[in-house]
Write a structure and sequence with these properties.
single chain; 405 residues; alpha/beta; TIM Barrel; Immunoglobulin-like; elongated
Length: 405
């Protein structure tokens, strides 16, 4: 279980911490440092030892008493910048004349250092939307000490891309590829979060274009691409079965939708995708290392197709991921591969059990001695409409067939 922990601001309620003992005890007295006008909340005074210790103790409390698995620290960017959502004249600089909140950065380092000292196996995730350096680097290296950072750039690029009619996606291939330019600078988590399914933004299924079949196919394609992409994964509740309504904090999830086949099939799909992820180390052992991800082809914008390889850290295993982001299937699409042999089709988001059209590769394909994409061999693949397929070189099967056993 993860807790959304909010040390970035607190409300002005009379029963809360504001003006607690008749003085500005927890917050700054100067509103240019002590108030977030965007939210109508107050900001903790991270320069006070007592306030920092209170917040660190609160974080430890959740781990010790409720045995949570981790915290997701909300609105980190609002803590790190003195001018966050403030106009000129509404903020004051730090002692060096800069916009960085040095006291807040020191507090985050202290919090992460203490939390990991007591609970070394937990998660501390930063929702940080800027390019502040070394967010997920250890504190002894000068980092903020988080072990994961939300990749909000990837999230917005993906949602913008999938919101488009598939015909227009050929002009926005950069949305698919840009994340890998900066991915290895931090330990990123790919997040499709609560923020994207509230306030008139629609739930995930409603964001997808096309008729009902295409909406579900788009969603399966996105989720499979996400699980193939480098980085840890997180979905928000209801996304796994395709709830149409936005998230409502006062209401229940619409589990009754599971009486309808498309929603039940999407739930079955998510179960299978999670099982695949758990069983294939190539999908997670090198999430943060450059050797773990390799583009095969990211330039075929005319067909809105990308192909890449994920590599295991402890073996020679690798997984080929090929995505077709349009409703147009391709019966003979050639993709380069690094080794010869039989490539078993591990996963197909277009499978019949998931509600797809059931186009695929009959369980797998043998490689051809045809150099392609700067690789010595290639596969002649069937790419299903709005589908993502994954392949793995079956070394044992290849050896048996070649030896005639």
């Amino acid at each position: 279980m993860l807790v959304d922990w909010v040390p970035g601001h607190f409300p002005k309620d009379g029963h809360g911490l504001a003006f607690f003992d008749g003085t500005h005890l927890y917050e700054h007295a100067d509103p240019r440092k002590g108030e977030h006008k965007e939210w109508g909340t107050l900001v903790f005074n991270y320069g006070r030892n007592e306030v920092r210790n209170y917040l660190v103790s609160n974080a430890l409390f959740w781990f010790e008493k409720f045995h949570i698995d981790g915290i997701r620290v909300d609105a980190v960017a609002s803590m790190l910048y003195l001018d966050y959502c403030r106009e000129p004249g509404e903020w004051v600089t730090n002692q060096y004349g800069g916009r960085e909140n040095i006291e807040a950065a020191d507090f985050l380092r202290q919090m992460n250092h203490v939390v990991f000292s007591y609970f070394p196996g937990v998660l501390s995730i930063a929702e940080e939307s800027t390019s502040w350096p070394m967010v997920s680097w250890p504190t002894y290296m000068g980092g903020l000490g988080f072990n994961l950072k939300w990749n909000m750039g990837w999230m917005h690029d993906m949602l913008d891309y999938f919101h488009m009619d598939p015909w227009f996606r050929q002009f926005h291939q950069n949305n698919l590829t840009f994340s890998m330019w900066y991915h290895h600078s931090e330990n990123f988590m790919l997040a499709l979060s609560h923020d994207e399914v509230v306030h008139g933004k629609s739930n995930m299924i409603g964001k997808m274009p096309g008729d009902e079949w295409q909406k579900f196919a788009n969603l399966r394609c996105l989720y499979t691409y996400m699980f193939g992409h480098s980085g840890k994964k997180t979905l928000f509740m209801s996304m796994e079965f395709g709830q149409w309504s936005e998230w409502n904090v006062w209401g229940d999830l619409e589990w009754q939708l599971l009486q309808f086949e498309p929603h039940q099939q999407l739930k079955t799909f998510m179960g299978a995708l999670n099982h695949l992820y758990q069983s294939e180390p190539a999908l997670y052992t090198q999430d943060f290392d450059e050797p773990g991800f390799e583009w095969v082809d990211c330039a075929d914008n005319r067909h809105s197709v990308v192909a890449f390889i994920r590599r295991d850290k402890l073996s020679d295993d690798f997984i080929l991921v090929v995505c077709n982001f349009t409703p147009q299937p391709h019966s003979h699409y050639r993709v380069g591969v690094p080794e010869s042999g039989f490539y078993r089709e591990l996963f197909n988001s277009d499978a019949k059990d998931f509600g797809g059209s059931n186009m695929g590769n009959m369980g797998g394909k043998w490689s051809d001695d045809w150099s392609f994409h700067d690789r010595p061999y290639s596969l002649d693949l069937c790419l299903p409409p709005l589908g993502t397929v994954m392949f793995k070189l079956d070394r044992e099967h290849t050896a048996q067939l070649r030896s005639g056993t």
